[in-house]
TrEMBL record:
Keywords: Repeat
GO biological process: RNA modification
InterPro entries for this protein: PPR_At4g14850-like_plant, PPR_rpt, TPR-like_helical_dom_sf
Organism the protein comes from: Acer negundo (Box elder)
Official protein name in the record: Pentatricopeptide repeat-containing protein
Positions annotated as PPR repeat: 104-138, 174-204, 205-239, 306-340, 396-430, 497-531
Amino acid sequence: MAATLSLSPLVLATPTSTNLVNQHEPRTKTMSKDSLPIATLKNCKTLDELKQLHCQVLKRGQNRDTSYVAKVISTCVEMGTFESLKYAQKAFNVFKNDSETSGTLFMYNFLIRGYSSAGLGEEAILLYLELVGSGLFPDKFTFPFVLSACAKSLACSEGAQVHGAIVKMGFEGDVFIANSLIHFYGECGEIDYGRKVFDEMSERNVVSWTSLICGCARRDKPKEAVDLFFHMVEEGVRPNSITMVCVISACAKLQDLELSERVCAYIDESEMKVNTLMVNALVDMYMKCGAVDTVKRFLDECVDRDLVLCNTVMSNYVRLGLAREALSVLDKMLLHGPRPDRVTMLSAISASAQLGDLLCGRWCHGYVLRIGLEGFIRNGDVEKAWGIFEEMPDKDLVSWNTVLGAYLQESMFEEAIELFRVMQREGITADRVTMVAVASACAYLGVLDVAKWIYTYIKKSEIHCDMQLETAFVDMFARCGDPQSAMQVFDKMEKRDVSAWTAAIEVTTMKGNGEQAVELFNKMLKQGVKPDAVVFVGVLTACSHGGLVEQGWQLFMSMKEVHGISPQIVHYGCMVDLLGRAGLLGEALDFIKSMPMEPNDVIWGSFLAACRTHKNVDMATYAAERITEMSPEKAGRMNQCCKSEAEHEGERGS
C-alpha cells in the first residue's frame, strides 16, 4: 500500500508514559442559552438534516466545542454511508484548523472505525499514523479497528507493526485485541502467527476459537480447522453458527465423509439451531463428499428451498457430471421457485454443454438475455481454467471476469471475493461486469462489512452503475441483512425494470412490512412496468407475512383477470400460506381443493404447519395423511408428530 507505518512514534508509546486522555466522548460544557443541545444531533435521520444542524452550530460559534464536533463525527459514522463518512472527515479537519489543536482520541477512534467498516483500510491506517504523530496514545478501542483495516486491505507488514505497538503498550492481554490479531493474521495467511497469539491467551471466548478455525479453513489448513473445532468442544466452549459454517466448509475441502458425519452428529446432539447459511454449507459438504443420495433425501424433505441452496446443489451436480440432475433442479425452481439468477443459469448452461443439448442451451441463453444478464461463463473445470489463466502472459479484464464467473459457477464465493482483492493489488480497474459478479458473491456470503466495502469501492472508483448492477446491490444488501441500505440504493435508481421492483419488494418482505410491499407493487404499475409471475410471488409472500388477507386475495385475482398471468402452483402455495397464517384453515382447505392442479407436498406441508400453529389436530392429521399418500417415507414421522400433538391436547383437556 501507499503508506508504510513508521516505527518511531510507536517506540515512544510506552505504558509508563501513556496518559490516555480523551478516551471517551467529552462531557458537555455549560452552554449558553443560544447553544444547540447535543441531543438534537441524535435526532438526525439523514445526512442533510445533520448538515443543516451543523451549519447552525458553525453560525453560533460552537465549531470549537469538542463535544459538538465529536457528536457530529460519531453520528456521521453511525449513518454508515460513503457521503456521511466524507462529511465526518471534513468536520474533523475544520475542527483541527479552527482550534489549532489535534482531535481527541474519541474522534480518531470513530473515524478509524468508520473507514475500516467501509473497507477504506488505507485511510484508516493513515489516520492511525496521524493519531500517534499528534502525541495522542491509542487505547484498547483503537487497535481492533486498525487491525480490521489492515486485514481488509491485506496490509500485513503494517498490521505486524501495530502488533508490536500493542505489545509495547501492554494491551496484548485484552481478549478483544487478541481476537482481532488472530483474525488479522488469518486474513493475511499467517496462520502460525495467529496460532501463537491464540496459544498465549489466558482467556479465550468463542470468537477466539472461531477466528482461528476460520483462518485455518480458508487458508488450506482444513484438517487443523476440524481438529481445533473438536478441541474447542472438549474445552466446553459452545460454537456459534459462524464457527459451524467454517468447520463444515473445512470438511467439504477435506472431502472426508466420516469426519463430516462427526460434525453433523455434534449439531444434532447439541440441539444447535441450524440457520440458512449452515444448511447451504451442509449440502455443499455432502455434495463435495460424494454423498449425493443424502442430499437428495434432504432436498425431498426440505420445504423451504432458498436460492443459495438450489444453486449449491446445481453447481455440485455439474461438477460431478450429473447434468440431468442439475437441470431437474432448474425445472423445479421454475415451477415452484425460487427464481433462478445468474449463478443458476451458469450451472444450467454448463449442464446443457455436458449433455450436448443445443435446444436447452439456446433456451438458457434466451432466459439470461431476458433478465438482462449480458455475459456468462461457458462450461469448464475451475482448476484447469485457473491454470490457463495463470499461464497467460497478458491478462486483460475479460480474463479476470471469466475466472470470477467460474468461481461463481462453482459456488466458490469466498474465492471470488479474494480474486477481486488480487485484481485490486494488481492494479486492474474493474468494470460493471466485474462488480455484478462480486456483488453476487457477497450476497451469497451474507457479510455486511464486505458489502459496504464493495459499495464504497464502486463510489470511489466512479464505476457506472446501470440498472442491472444497481439491482444486484439491492439484492446484496438485502441478503446481508441491511434492508435500509438496500432501499436507499433502490430509491436512487433512475430506471427500474420488473427485476428491480421485485428485489425491492423482497426487501420489504424481509422487514415484515407487507403494506409497504403492496404500495411498491402499486407504484410499479403506475409507472407502467408490466408485472411478471415472479413479482407476484414476492408481493403475495409479503401479504402472507404481513397478515394482509384481503389485499392478497385482490392481487391473486388480478393476476389472470387484469394482467393475463396464469397463477402457477407457487402462487397457490402463497395463498395457502396466507390463509393458514391468518388462521382461516377452513378457507385454506377449500382453496386447496379448488386448485386447478394437483396440490403437492409443499402445499400440504404449509397447511400442516398452519394447523399446528393454530392447534387444529383434526386438520393437521388430514394434511399429514395427504403428505403420506405422496411421500410414503414421511408417513412414520408425520403420524408420530400428529399423535404427539393429539396426546398433548388430551392432557391439556384433562
